[in-house]
Amino acid sequence: MAKDVDPQILYSAVRVTPCFVDRHAVAREPTGTGFFVDDTATGGRRYLVTNRHVLDPDFKEYRGWALESVRVDGHYQSDRYGGVLNATPQAVRVGTPAPVFPQDPSIDLALLPLDEHSEITVLEGVGGFNSSPSSLIATSEHFSSGRVTVGRQVLMPGYPGIGGEAAARPILVAGVVASDPRYAAAIGSRTFPNEVLCHAFSWEGMSGSPVLCRIPKESLTWEDVQNLGGQEVVLAGINAGHITTSGGTAGVLSRIVRADALASLLEQHRESGTSDRAIGSEPTP
């Protein structure tokens, strides 16, 4: 990570396509981005994480419509072995009808459980996606202690829509933490609770992108100093879109929902049950 970006980071992002239907059976399929998290506290129950405004028709412009289905497109990227990429990424597509998902109405986050109890149809590939363990999620201590602070580098893979066309593969955007993450982001009279501003371009379609941050390790080994530069990566947040500017389709200031809000939402829904194997998990070699 200190020298380059592993393809697994790039391919951790997936394209999320909800299908909204109105009372006249007119359908709309906007696109967003998401990523998978394995909740290690429940034995690895898998969730698709994205913004609430991507999946909830009542959150914004599709108020009064119904969420009929969700399609997830992405690629499974295997590990590196000996520094060499083991295989080309495998295209994957799955779908689920009318999902019910945990959410907090006060936060622009949504969790879509994708486990053996969900109605999942594999439409292409073997049904496996890359995912991150919940231990990667930054805690409130990361923000209060200054480990995630202004100037830290962030990486944000997502599926931007440019000129009306969505990216076929995830595209990586880099930037830095721009506002003091100890406080709610604010622009003029607008305040964004549980959010931080990052100086990183966010195009339409990148809502829900994972935001990874390079931070100093708390303790260093000699190998760390030699190979990793004494840094590690945490999931600092979830991209919620750019600060709106007149006449532009992208903004250089992006709103990031802090990752500890995601950790809290996971905690609230751990009592909902676990599964032996999550749909969307890595394929069997």
Short description:
11% of the residues lie in helices and 41% in strands.
Report Rg: 18 Å
* Percentage of residues in helical conformation: 10-25%
For the sheet with most strands, the description reads:
9 strands, mixed
Q: Please provide the ordered H/E string of secondary-structure elements.
A: HEEEEHEEEEEEEHEEEEEEEEHEEH
Can you offer a commentary on this structure?
This protein has about 280 residues and is mainly β. It is about 10% helix and about 40% strand. The chain contains five helices and 21 strands. The strands form five sheets. Strands 1, 2, 3, 4, 5, 8, 9, 10 and 11 form a nine-stranded mixed β-sheet that branches. It has a six-stranded antiparallel beta barrel with strand order 12-15-18-21-20-19. A hairpin with a 2-residue loop joins β6 and β7. It is globular, with a radius of gyration of 18 Å. Residues about 275-285 have low confidence and may be disordered.
SSE arrangement:
Blueprint: H1 7-10, E1 13-21, E2 27-28, E3 32-39, E4 45-50, H2 52-55, E5 66-76, E6 80-81, E7 84-85, E8 90-97, E9 110-113, E10 121-124, E11 132-133, H3 140-144, E12 153-158, E13 161-162, E14 165-166, E15 171-177, E16 185-187, E17 190-192, E18 195-203, E19 210-216, H4 222-228, E20 231-242, E21 250-258, H5 259-268
Parallel strand pairs: 3-11
Antiparallel strand pairs: 1-2, 1-3, 1-5, 3-4, 4-9, 5-8, 6-7, 8-10, 12-15, 12-19, 13-14, 15-18, 16-17, 18-21, 19-20, 20-21
What key attributes describe this structure?
mainly beta; 285 residues; six-stranded antiparallel beta barrel; single chain; disordered C terminus; nine-stranded mixed β-sheet
